Amino acid sequence: MAKQQLLLLLSSLGSMVLFTLVTVPAAVPVLGSHWPLSGPVTVAVYATLALRHRFPLGTVGVATIGSLVLLADGMVYPVTLLALFCALYWVALDSSPVRTLVVGVTVKATLLVGSLFTHPGMTGVVIVMWAALAVTTGSAARSHRAYVAEADERARRAERAREEEANRRVAEERLRIARELHDAVGHHVALINVQAGALGCLLEDEDRSQAMESVAHIQQASEEALEELRLTVGLLRQPGTPESAEPAEPVPGLDRLGDLICSFAGTGLQVTREVTGRARPLPEAVELTAYRVIQESLTNIRKHAGCVPAIVRLGYGPGALRLAVEDEGEAAARGSGRRAVVGMAGVSTVGGHGIVGMRERVTAVGGRLAVGPRPEGGYRVFAELPLRSAGIEGA
């Protein structure tokens, strides 16, 4: 870009120097012999250049008329031609292509006709060629300036797009970390809360064996909560931080569903599992989403419905995994934590972050989620997670 500007400047300066060397030797003797007319005309023409920004066409007109007057006065190459060429350059630089073409053709035709009357021969051709060079140079400078402006605008748009993309990725990462904290740590903290409440009652009854069992559950849930928190906070490490030498914790999946159900059994929640279809490995994103939905659903049951029986249904279809978590509690006993219907079924969401997090997880893998009361009592969480988008074909 800088090199093009330098070449353009050198070309313009070279043209002006060459024009001066050609015209001045021929114009000076005539200027001295016709001073009463040529002097004021020359001064007037060059003085109007100061008004070129406010009256560009007027400047060109004055310079053209002055050049014709000096041609008629006997100058072969009037000294006002330099002012005329500069005025043409500035018009071409600041005007539209159509306007530049009209002005340039008009001025060149006028100079050619005038020179043919006053100095028949090659004089008119030379003057027209110099005028054409001035117009062409101005047009090239205008095109280059427009190109530079467009390139700068594209760079600004690209920078804004990069900033927006970076902000979007940061927002997505924040949501992902928030979901992990809520689903993983929140689950264990909820179990700790339940066990701590039970422990208080047992200590009042002086049932030491069951109290010790509750303490063991609290200790185990606390350790798991701290481990989940450590792994989630690890997501916040800055780029370039050395990787830990410890092996990465596997992403929770349906293979850990048995351990999850056992953790709730320790709190008094009896959960049964039903599987239809041929169980098989699923994409990691689907496995994690299914695990978190079941985890959040069972946590809500234990928090809001107590120790009512619950059932987890898994259906492995050819193109989707369908899961449902149902309980037999009373709808009125749930409180505000599990109200309304959620997700892709088209009903608005009311409630806490857990339901919102489930909806975001299911939507992220292209599935649908519905939560609501069952006609026979209790609540039901249903999710359908597609497999075809991940290239998994069922039997």
Descriptive notes:
This protein is an alpha+beta fold. The protein folds into two domains: 2-156, no CATH class; 269-395, Heat Shock Protein 90. It has ten helices and five strands. It has helices spanning 2-33, 35-48, 56-72, 81-94, 97-118, 123-205, 208-233, 257-265, 284-304, 353-364; strands at residues 271-276, 310-316, 320-327, 368-373, 379-386. It has a five-stranded mixed β-sheet, with helices on one face. Helix 3 packs antiparallel against helix 4, helix 5 runs antiparallel to helix 6 and helix 6 crosses helix 9. The longest helix has 83 residues, at 123-205. It is rod-shaped.
List the helices and strands and how they pair.
Layout: H1 2-33, H2 35-48, H3 56-72, H4 81-94, H5 97-118, H6 123-205, H7 208-233, H8 257-265, E1 271-276, H9 284-304, E2 310-316, E3 320-327, H10 353-364, E4 368-373, E5 379-386
Parallel strand pairs: 1-2
Antiparallel strand pairs: 2-3, 3-5, 4-5
Helix pairs in contact: 1-6, 2-3, 3-4, 3-5, 4-6, 5-6, 6-7, 6-9, 6-10, 9-10
